[in-house]
């Protein structure tokens, strides 16, 4: 089974492809895709969705796991992230791939064993659970790996 994990955003998009099953998972590919901050929102949304469509076409994952929207005090940012999630869900379902959504707390419980874990706790646990390439990894990429792993260990 190949699972694409996405930490949705219009400025930075965490993306991770994991292959395996409930018992063993391997990272095939992961990145933090960034859109151009000088572009307007619509252009950045198009770039993010086009990039995910390319990944869906190239890797043909069996399913996609997305992190749900975390409440934000910045309403403009929250609205743009919600719009990005909607566009991504359309692209995923348009490719006839099942989409699964997980709340940040459920991801923390699945990866770190506690819903109160910090981003550093999640990153530390991911390095213990998976063979992660030795490169600089942003939080968005770790979040995408974590949501893909959450889906894989949750599947029956």
Short description:
With 156 residues, the protein is α/β, with parallel strands linked by helices.
Produce the secondary structure layout.
Blueprint (H helix, E strand, L loop, with lengths): L1 E6 L4 E9 L4 E10 L6 H19 L3 E5 L7 H20 L3 E5 L1 H9 L6 H11 L9 H16 L2
Parallel strand pairs: 1-4, 4-5
Antiparallel strand pairs: 1-2, 2-3
How would you describe this structure to a colleague?
Helix 4 crosses helix 5. Helix content is 48%, strand content 22%. Helix 2 links the parallel strand 4 and strand 5. A 5-stranded mixed β-sheet has the order 3-2-1-4-5. It has 5 helices and 5 strands.
List keywords for this structure.
alpha/beta, 48% helix
Query: Biggest sheet: strands side by side, in what order?
Result: 3-2-1-4-5
Using the CA coordinates, give the radius of gyration.
15 Å
**SS elements, strand count:** 5
How far is the N terminus from the C terminus? 12 Å
The total count of helices amounts to 5
Q: What low-confidence regions span 5 or more consecutive residues with pLDDT below 50?
A: none
Biggest β-sheet strands, sense, barrel: 5 strands, mixed
Q: Strand pairing plus helix content: what structural class? A: alpha/beta
Please tell me the overall pLDDT.
93
Helix content range of the residues, please? 40-55%
Bin the strand percentage. 15-25%
Based on CA inertia axes, which overall geometry fits? globular
Q: What is the string of helix and strand elements?
A: EEEHEHEHHH
């Amino acid at each position: 089974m190949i699972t694409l994990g996405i930490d949705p955003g219009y400025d930075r998009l965490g993306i991770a492809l994991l292959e395996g099953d409930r018992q063993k998972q391997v990272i095939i590919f992961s990145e933090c895709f960034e859109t151009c901050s000088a572009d307007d929102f619509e252009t950045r949304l198009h770039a993010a969705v086009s990039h995910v469509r390319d990944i869906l076409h190239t890797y043909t994952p069996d399913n996609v796991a997305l992190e749900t929207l975390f409440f934000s005090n910045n309403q403009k940012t929250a609205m743009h992230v919600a719009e990005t999630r909607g566009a991504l869900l359309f692209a995923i379902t348009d490719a006839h791939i099942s989409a699964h959504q997980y709340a940040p707390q459920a991801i923390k419980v699945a990866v770190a064993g506690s819903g109160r874990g910090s981003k550093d706790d999640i990153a530390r646990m991911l390095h213990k659970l998976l063979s992660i390439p030795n490169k600089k990894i942003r939080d968005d990429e770790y979040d995408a790996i974590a949501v893909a792993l959450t889906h894989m260990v949750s599947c029956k």
